[in-house]
Hints:
This protein is mostly helical. The chain has one domain (3-67, 118-188). Helix content is 61%, strand content 2%. A two-stranded antiparallel ribbon has the order 1-2. Helix 1 (3-25) packs antiparallel against helix 2, helix 1 (3-25) packs across helix 8 and helix 3 crosses helix 8.
Amino acid sequence: MNRSTAHKLAAAAALTFALAAAGRAEARPGFTPPAEMARVYVEAGARFGVAPRLLAAIGYNESRHGRSSLPGVSGGINRAGCCAGPAQLCVVRSCGRVWQRYRVDGDGDGRKRVHDAADGFATAARYVVKLRRMVRSTRPRLLLAAYNAGPGAVRRYGGVPPYSETIGYVVVGKRLMRMIDRMATIAAA
């Protein structure tokens, strides 16, 4: 095993531990991901070069880390009639068919299923890479805003659009990311 691979594996293990520890430390039930989802975020992030904490922020906002019982999370399509899966990826033409364009077999089972967490978040990570180019930024707040409101809205407003849903999405996502950072620092100490 080369040094780069060993470093990536050590970082993934530390983040997985930090996410699991954060889940025990956080007072808000469901705020941090269960261990299985933490692993999904770490693996998808490593595969596409996306911070797992950003994927965890998306996962919480979109489906409470796959635990939401709302329509579209574990089957079917959401109430808005556009998104599906724990990453709530667009599956219709009106919002860009993100799932169809970027879908990935995240768990290596030979199938690409929007309602499978590993496939959904590997696809979300691949889409975040595209969003970076679309909004010309790697800043998490802009990537969260683009994931929620679309890259066109972020470009049009030159930042986070003034939509209450998107502002809330960014605030909650950044809060989770800061908490994960604190727990990773504690785990590394």
